[in-house]
Amino acid sequence: MFTGLIETVGGVRRLAPKSAGAVLDVEVHWPDDAPPKAGDSVAIDGACLTVLDPSPSGFTADLSPETLERTLLGDLRAGASVNLERALRLGDRLGGHLVQGHVDTVVRVLTIRPEGAFQRWRLSLPAEQAQEVAPKGSVSLHGVSLTVAALGPDWFEVALIPATLEATNLEHMRSGARLHLETDVLAKYVARRQGGPGRSALDEVFGGGGGA
Q1: Domain ends where: 52, 86, 120?
Q2: What are the backbone dihedrals phi and psi of residue 13, each rounded to the nearest 5 degrees, phi first?
Q3: In the chain, where does DSSP find H-type helix?
Q4: How many domains are contained in the chain?
Q5: Do the Cβ atoms of 47 and 73 come closer than 8 Å?
Q6: What local confidence, expressed as pLDDT, does residue 210 receive?
Q7: Residue 36: which residues within 8 A CB-CB, separation 6 or more?
Q8: Which domain holds residue 130?
Q9: Domain holding 41: CATH number?
Q10: Angle at Cα 165 formed by Cα 33 and Cα 81, nearest 5°?
């Protein structure tokens, strides 16, 4: 489990095939000089992976066929920057929201609108995830916890503050970029419990009307 608060940005040293999957080698210097141990969980661009061969300068992680199919990690190349967060410990402050590190889908940045030092992004929203996204609700984009600022039938918007842009690899993104999306785990359970054809599960919770 993670918070969506990125601890640091690492760099890809290499991505190499391994059986039906791949192995990812990441260079990173953790802020507290306390690297994770072998077997620990680390979110890389929001995808939860298991640490292998840790060292003071980085670690490797296996990418399964499932991970390669559902994420963009297989497209990484040497020199690419990745958002990194170690797993949440009991007793830690929860400054973001509960993030599982399970990528639901890949979305595309439709527009980026500057607002002074801030930015407002509009992103595509697949129908499969639409009922799990609500105004002022939480989403994770490339592992970053963000609040939904606006919502349409097939899009949603988020507002990014300068600190978020400076501390993550989102500052390098441009219109057309693809990102990992993870919806709020609580919204998933609500959708599973109350969802039905023709009516959003979140409409049931928040009282949204179905017609004029």
Answers
A1: 86
A2: -90, -40
A3: 65-70, 127-130, 162-167, 185-194, 201-206
A4: 2
A5: yes
A6: 37
A7: 30, 42, 51, 54, 59, 86
A8: 105-195
A9: 2.40.30.20
A10: 55
